[in-house]
Amino acid sequence: xxxxxxxxxxxxxxxxxxxxxxxxxxxxxxxxxxxxxxxxxxxxxxxxxxxxxxxxxxxxxxxxxxxxxxxxxxxxxxxxxxxxxxxxxxxxxxxxxxxxxxxx
Length: 104
Description:
By secondary structure, the protein is an alpha/beta fold. It has four helices and five strands, in the order E-H-E-H-E-E-H-E-H.
């Protein structure tokens, strides 16, 4: 049962790094400009202002990242309301020390 007040799970960027070897769904909710500046290779860009329209069929957990963790938390709440199993990456790209890829 969904509760509007249910907590969004969080993981650190270090924990995220250990999961990237698996086939995970990682959404980067920053703007396309920010995304092109540098993103995690597996991340798919779905800006926060478009997250409400996200309709991918997935039984997988979705990891959400942004620059600092604020927008990803908002996105995670919206996705959770739609029934997705979501985890927010705290600290976002500000805390990410792994490789990044530029461009699309």
